[in-house]
């Protein structure tokens, strides 16, 4: 797992160092090939890219307007390299191993008052919440479409927001009931 984590970290660091969009493209293709070699499948790769595509389109257009095409391409490709690298890590590593890795990485910060187990718990809650929120979005989108309100952003955003807040409150209540919500007091 540490080697995969180092690959993700190296991709993140490289995104600051690479200044040519062609190099970014080559690394992106290499990471996609590496992802395919994991056996996770082409669909999963497309889904990982599709999730960030709307944001990257906006970023790419803004960067193109501000800094030109090559710079915009480099920035978007570098973000995609990081997304695919992280997808390789999550596709090939069990969640419990990822959480154990987070605990191990956060242990040096104990001397500053950090709680490594709390970091892992936070990430576990986040990983558990993402599919719920995506499902809520899909359900609301279908109902908005059925009512003919697909042009009304409030009809989509507000119910998803309310559902997400309710889910977060339920999760917080469940954690508090188990004594995991409040830090220990001296």
Automatic annotation (TrEMBL):
Location comes to: Membrane
Listed A to Z, the keywords are:
Membrane, Transmembrane, Transmembrane helix
Query: Mind telling me which residue stretches traverse the membrane in this protein?
Result: 6-36, 48-65, 71-91
Claim: Transmembrane helix is one of the keywords in the record: yes
The record's listing under CDD domains reads: EcfT
Keyword Transmembrane helix tagged: yes
Name the domain of life.
Answer: Bacteria
- Which Gene Ontology cellular component annotation is one that this UniProt entry carries? plasma membrane
Q: Which InterPro entries match?
A: ABC/ECF_trnsptr_transmembrane
Membrane association type: Multi-pass membrane protein
Protein's name in the database: ABC transporter permease
